[in-house]
Amino acid sequence: MELRHLEQILEICRAGGFSGAARKLQISQPTLSKSIARLEDQLSLKLFERSNGAARPTAYGTFVAQRAETLLQGVAALTRDLEQLARGEEGRVRIAVGPASRLKPLPELMRRVAARFPRLHVETLQETGPGVMTALQEGRVDMAFGYAEHAARYGDLIRKKLFEDQIIAVARPGHPALELRDAGPRELLQHAIALPNVVPGVARWAGDLTREEADNLRAFVSDDYGLIVQRALETDTVALGASFIFAEHLAAGRLVQVSTTLDVPYDCWMLTTAERWRSPLIKAMAELSKAAVTERAACAAA
Fold this sequence. Notes:
Blueprint: H1 3-15, H2 18-25, H3 29-43, E1 48-51, E2 54-57, H4 59-87, E3 92-97, H5 106-116, E4 121-126, H6 129-137, E5 143-147, H7 148-151, E6 158-171, H8 185-188, E7 193-195, H9 200-206, H10 211-217, E8 220-221, H11 225-234, E9 238-242, H12 243-252, E10 256-257, E11 265-272, H13 274-277, H14 280-301
Parallel strand pairs: 3-4, 3-5, 7-8, 7-9
Antiparallel strand pairs: 1-2, 5-11, 6-9, 6-10, 6-11
Helix pairs in contact: 1-2, 1-4, 2-3, 5-14
InterPro entries: LysR_HTH_N, LysR_subst-bd, WH-like_DNA-bd_sf, WH_DNA-bd_sf
GO molecular function, one term: DNA-binding transcription factor activity
Family: Belongs to the LysR transcriptional regulatory family.
């Protein structure tokens, strides 16, 4: 069934027959009759009772017509929204971010969006890593920034890789963990850990845990990296996260990287659905996102 079929069925119900519906649709009556007949054959259902030039919908036809009106209204609204979004006028885009992607690339992207689409309405939703994917899959947002491993189970999403980093462990100066060299999970998990969630790569590295190790791995869990950093700065908790999160504190000597065998990459992706990817605005947002992290990295290297 195609959208044109929905339009045809709805117009036949409104007009009470094929002739009036054909005039409204600006097609010939035989063309309309053949289109509906082919659809009925395809569905093995009778949609209309024909009699003396009139057409009365069957229970199936009534059901389709009721659904068709709502669907066609949605298509019309979506078309208007996409046209507005493409111009950056009075449109709205909803973005989900995780604890790390809220810090990069979201702030730089928002600066670029404000310059290029000054009238665009933007909503951001901060979620846990898995929650970002759920929000996108459920249609609560138009696009999302997330960690590659959280997106792995959603094979039908459009993915645009933005940057890659490495998950590291950090602690405040003088922490006993800093005396370790190439610490494995057994050594590192003697200490309390602060992190937003246990990503699959970290879980694989940790392996089977004792009760004490499991408790230490989840000693402080927060979706706010500001709180995670604060925990590492003020206590003997070791923080885990992408290295860019701790870069400023590492450079200032407020935190120090712990030597571990942890080798888990952090890949940040922009993700959206195939339907939303058709929007010129979403494609523009992908370009702005890539430019934001690429140019910023180039400036840092210089």
